Amino acid sequence: MLRLIGLVKPLSGYMILAIVMGIIGNLCAAAITVLGGYAVLQILQHESLALNILFCIVVIIALIRGLLRYAEQACNHFIAFKLLALIRDKVFAALRRLCPAKLGGKDKGDLISVITSDIELLEVFYAHTISPICIAIVFCIMVTTFIGSQHWALALLTLVAYVTVGIAIPLVSSKLSGDVGIRSRNKSGHLSAFVLDSLRGMSETLQYGQGKKRSVEIDAMTDALSRDEERMKRVTGRNTAVTNTVILFFDLTMLFASAALCGFEGCLIATLTLMSSFGPVVALASLGPTLQNTFAAGNRVIDILDETPIVEDVDGRTKVAFSGAAAKKVTFAYDEDTILKDLSITIPENQIVGITGRSGSGKSTLLKLFMRFWQVPQGEILITGRNIDDIDTKNLRDMESFVTQETHLFHDSIRNNLRIAKLDATDDEIVAACKKASIHDFILSLPQGYDTTVGELGETLSGGERQRLGLARAFLHDAPFLLLDEPTSNLDSLNEAVILRSLHESRSGKTVVLVSHRKSTMGIADQVYNVEHGRMS
Ligand code: ATP
Ligand code: MG
Fold first, then answer.
1. Confidence (pTM)
2. 3-class DSSP state of 379
3. Does residue 336's CB lie within 6 angstroms of at least one atom of ligand 1?
4. Which of 42, 58, 374, 409 could form a disulfide with 51 if both were Cys (CB 3.0 to 4.6 A apart)?
């Protein structure tokens, strides 16, 4: 809770304003009823002038109350939605810090659920929790003092009433609802993950006739989630019933106690004041069950903010120009199993170095280490003779082009998909890169050419077309150090030949690490290494 409150700091001025308006507004609301009580007394004493004045005051106070209520709510919601935007920003920044090592194995659907619904739920905390608590405390102290001016025992009774309604009931109801809030947040995360997974695995599901099974699983998850929500709503309902009954009990107790202690006038004023003053505490009482849900969401958000990255970005180092790379006695494991053992390799400038090896031997892993996607625990990776951890991350990424085994295409036009490799690329540069990657003619054959939108998962394109777009990106990026992971695995020999020729023609000033199982591709390499049991041979 303190962490969540800490995030309000940049907007604390608005928060104080909301609290002040809330207190005055609630005092006005209570004053209307209490003045009504005084009006009754004036009527009994036949004071018509005072009655008229009271009537005018009540009208003015009612108007002020309306305005303040609006302003308080506007202020609170301004704070809440501004904060949600700030928190989203922080979460995105945290996700960027965590990429790619920490996010690789994470449940993407669960992350989406944190970014969307969990952050959204914090609105309850920022708009309906912090300032109402402050308002309730100050307001209750003021009302207790006022009632105490009639008799001290009545002040005590008022205090007990507020503590029961505002603290005891919410606490008990929160205890009774158990950890249903936390469970429902986690379930909602799992449901998103499952739906996302199902969408991704659509073809496998269809091919193996698993559609029914998956939809039954989704149904079961939805039912479990709705059962939890039903339980929370039941708790809320019970909570409201108990709160209202307890309020009635205290109102009646006040009526009899004040009648016995203060006479008619004191009794009327004290009872009316108490009756009209439960608004702020009831607002707290109704928070009980939802607050748990909110804190569960808050925890999930804070967990992401607190997660430490495996690889920290390096900033502010002097730039280096690329002149060869090397791995020196590198030992690396993702978890327990060692993938690379004491591995050393030198990649001289302007050479094409081929790497082969059986599937799972760690070829892609080595390329990721050259990209500094993971931290090397033993040994070192050198670029231009300098440890990769001492090179400015931006500088490093500018020096390298990495074509992965799976080219991801964003849901955008082909042109924009290519442009991420070089934001200020001219159309001519894009066309030249596509020609090199043997994809230009294909793009022109599409209905809108370079402006054709490709689907989210690149489903509208074949594996080979996607691979060539990945290569076109690398050619466009035009970095001196090219890391190509199976760049020709999905290509026919004709396209492979075009790409190998392009690589060969543009090799001046380029250093290339080429991972491939294909002999024909390895043909253009100056030297070929084989990874076996984590070592080079
Ligand atoms: P292929 O020829 O099939 O592409 P590869 O030589 O490129 O294989 P890598 O992708 O480097 O193999 O993987 C080496 C090993 O590390 C594999 O056993 C793989 O299961 C494991 N591995 C890869 N990525 C991770 C990861 N993020 N977390 C844990 N293990 C991983
Ligand atoms: Mg691989």
1. 0.77
2. strand
3. no
4. 42
